[in-house]
# Entry
Amino acid sequence: MFSIFRIAKRISKDPHFSIGKIATQTEVNKRPTRTEIINFFLSKTAGKNYLEIGVRNPEDNFNHIVCKNKVSVDPGVEFAENPVDYQLTSDSFFQQLSENKTKLEKNTRFDVIFIDGLHLADQVEKDIHNSLVHLQENGFVILHDCNPPTIFHQRENYGFHNSPAKGYWNGTTWKAFYKFRHEENLYSICFDTDWGVAVLSKTEHPGFNRLELPLANPYFEYLELEKNRKVHLNLADFESWKEI
# Structure
């Protein structure tokens, strides 16, 4: 039976832990932030309506978004105070929105919808689908955590911290984004900053593209993503893209 000391010694020699630590620190230091990118895209629209799914602490992002009408949704699992407009799951909020049972104007459409809720692919897929229904034709759906730097950062279980990613977690958000990159009437890009800030649009923009069917990575394997993530995610540098 291994002692705690011997286990710790083995972990310290595992190269994945060193790689994970470096990858995490590199990502933390990247700029610009998701907030700056969201505000940029809002400035390219009417900038009237903004929706954020998965707020946690509003000081992290929501309070710094510049928009006339801002709507926040969060069930309050991670932040007990939960000072949001709708203390609901995203599924419940979108159902109420579709039935015109919210406090919003009837048939409200959003210029930008930011998705940062439960980071599991099946839920993110539902959030993207619902967002597209309530998006302006020239609007943008923006997602956080679409470019996990290691296989450990994209684990499904958030609670497992004894890994090279420690408490950092991107989940499987990238899988939902990758799937929608194959949609015929959608165009997308992923900016290589702040854990991967991805943008989906119903209209074509410089640098945006889509992937042709069939799926190049049909089983959504992370190691396949890693071989060519630039193409799979349409990964780009934000500042260079802005110059286009």
Observations:
- The mean pLDDT is 94.
- The chain has nine helices and seven strands.
- The CA atoms of residues 117 and 123 lie 8 Å apart.
